Structures are given as structure tokens and as C-alpha cells.
Amino acid sequence: PAAINWQETTIASGDNLTTVFKRLGLNATDVYSVANTSTEPKALRRLRPGEHIAIYLSEEGKLAQVKYTRSTLEHYLYERGDNGFEGTKVVLKPDLIPTYKTAIINNSLSLDANRAGLSQAKIMELANIFGWDIDFALDIRKGDAFSVLYDEKFLNGEKVGNGDILAATFSNHGTTFSAVRYIEKDGSINYYTPDGKPMRKAFLRAPLDFTRISSNFSLHRKHPVHKRIKAHRGVDYAAPRGTPVYAAGDGRVVASGYSKANGNYVFIQHGGKYVTKYLHLTKRLTRKGKHVSQGKTIGTVGSTGYATGPHLHYEFLVNGVHRNPRTVKLPDAKTIAKSQRDEFIVQTVPLLDQLNQRNGMLIAQVNLHD
Fold first, then answer.
1. I need a surface site. Which of 78, 81, 144, 198 has the fewest CB within 10 A?
2. Which residues of the chain have pLDDT under 70?
């Protein structure tokens, strides 16, 4: 039917099918007949703000079609037939075009990556891939650099979104880390080093969403409240109150409580060897005895206990001994199974070749200008 005969509305917060249909001049009978469609009825129970619903009326003024659009690539079409409404799910396949971006960090990762054309979501995705090797809160330096190859999605020549990161490199303090996408047999996506070691390790280097940082690891420092030299057995991550704090690795919560010095705290045991501690939280979001997975939010940054301003104090113990979480040697992840080796090579070598080719072209251009 011609677009002119369609009436459309945008779903607002708190909307359901009844409120949307009422706004479009329809009645309760219409709601009932569409909601009880024999196919795809569940989709209409999960309306989200910002999505669209459009209706088409017949010449007699009767509801004939309903189009529920979730995104540019996904919509549901409900059409009146002899036995009531029938729904069809329509998923459009976009063209995937690999895109290359690179930047040298002069100000901050966010600012320089943004200037290079990366969205905030892609910057966080990049940081998440390398977050087991690089502490993005404390370790980023002027002169660090990255290059990334990722898919952009196009439909009829128009960009409709971004796809996966395919391959990336990050140079930090003169060490270059490389990662490449691998689609597992079950369809899940993981990132590996070019020689088949998972990027995912047992522990994250920085267990929070980072912004600004206060004091570094040192065994000779003045405690900010007591003003005397006191061993500071961990890292302080200064961040706004309420910033999510993550479990650095899978484990069991062995303590979750409050003390005068530590404020709200959570301690997690990871196997027999490792313990991580998180102090001065505004809120604790887990309790003793709970199993937590890596990256799960266990609390929020605060300034409870002996703390001058909002920050996370993070400690890392190996066999009961405090170690610097930023430099401690972590257990190596196992290389990809031999049975998957051939498939790994088939998938990853072309992606790495593309990235290396683009990086090489850039180096050649730089040399030409020298």
C-alpha cells in the first residue's frame, strides 16, 4: 500500500499496544484482534521507546495492516486475512563493508579515537577487547596508538549501523597487542591473539568504568586521611560516585560488609590462589557466598570509610601476599584447541591480512612524506 495511507507513531516510555492504538484512533477490538494473532504475537508485548508502529486502513476504514518497526533492519508485519491477523517477522540483511580507523593518542583515548571517527560504543568495544592486557584507566600514555578494522552496515547504499570489530592492534608503552575476531561453532564471538590465545584472561586489569585516577601503587606513600607514611597495598581509581565496579574475575564473594576504615567493601576469592578486594564503595550489590562472573557489577564507587573523595581502592592478593594488580603476572590462557586450528586460520588470516595491509599503506605514506 502507498506510504500516504499509512499512519505512524513513535513508541514512548510506558506505552503498550492499547495506548498506541488509542493514539492512532483505533479501539479495543482492534487491539484484541492484533494481540491475538496466531503468529508472532509475543513481539507486540515488548514495545520499546523510540520504536515505531504504523497502521494501514482499508477503504471501508477497517484496520488492514500493522507494521511494528524495531530497527532499520527488523520489523513485524501483521496483515488481516480470512482467519484474523497473521504476523510475519522481516529481517533485512545489510551489506557489510570493512572500515579502517587509526589514531595516535595525544590527549585521551576517547578524544583521539572520536576525532578519528570512532563512536563511543566502538571505543568501549576496543577497550573491552584489550582490557585484560591494558589498564585503560592508568596505563594510557601520549604516543600510544591503535588501528582497528570493523564492519559498517549499509542498506540500499545508506549506512544503518556498525558491525563487529574484525581485527585490531593497540600499542601501549612500546608493546603492541593484536586481536582478531573468531566466530565459535555455537555462533558466539570471541577475540584471540593471531597465534590463537584468547584475549580473555582470568582477570581484568582495571575493574571499573574509568575516568580520572588519583594515587598509583607504592609502598611509601602518605595516607590522605592520616597524613603519615602508610603502605598502600593496591591501586586507587578516582572516579565519580556511582561509577560501576566490576568483579575482576570469576569467583565467590567471601566478604561483603562495612568497617570504619574500609567503608563498604567486597572481597572475592578466585580459586585457591587469588583474592581481590574492593573498598570505599557507595553501594554493595552482592553478598557473601554469591558466585560472581567476571565483569559483573558488584558495587559502585564511593567515599565510605577513610577516604577523602570518591574512589575505588582495589587490592590483589596472590597466596595471601599483596601484589600490584597492574603488573602482576597473570596465568596464561590456553591456546585454541587443535581441532579448531584449521577453521581458526581460515577465519582470521584474511582479517589480519586486511588490517596489516592498511597499516602498511599508512606506514608507506608516512615514509613518503619524511
1. 81
2. 1-4, 210-232, 362-370
Q: For the whole model, what pTM was predicted?
A: 0.79
Q: Copy the grid coordinates of residue 134.
A: 591494558
- pLDDT value at residue 110: 87
Residue-wise pLDDT tens digits, 253-308: 999 999 999 999 999 999 999 999 999 999 999 999 999 999 999 999 999 999 88
- In the block, cell 601476599 appears at 321
- Assess contact for 287 and 246: CB atoms under 8 A: no
Q: Supply the pLDDT for residue 327.
A: 82
Whether residue 201 contacts residue 355, with contact meaning beta carbons closer than 8 Å, is answered with no
How many Cβ atoms are within 10 Å of 95's Cβ, its own excluded? 12
The residue ranges of every structural domain in the chain are: 3-91, 95-202+338-369, 235-323
φ/ψ of 183, rounded to 5, equals -90, 115
DSSP 327-369: TPPPPPPPPPPGGGHHHHHHHHHHHHHHHHHHHHHHHHHHHHH
- Grid look-up 582477570 returns 203
pLDDT confidence of residue 47 = 96
> Per DSSP, which regions of the chain are E strands?
6-10, 52-57, 63-71, 74-81, 84-91, 95-104, 145-155, 158-172, 175-183, 189-192, 235-238, 244-246, 251-259, 263-270, 274-284, 291-292, 297-301, 311-318, 321-323
The architecture (CATH level 2) of 95-202+338-369 comes to: Roll (3.10)
Tell me the backbone φ, ψ of residue 96, rounded to 5 degrees. Answer: -100, 120
The span from the first CA to the last CA of the chain, in angstroms, equals 61
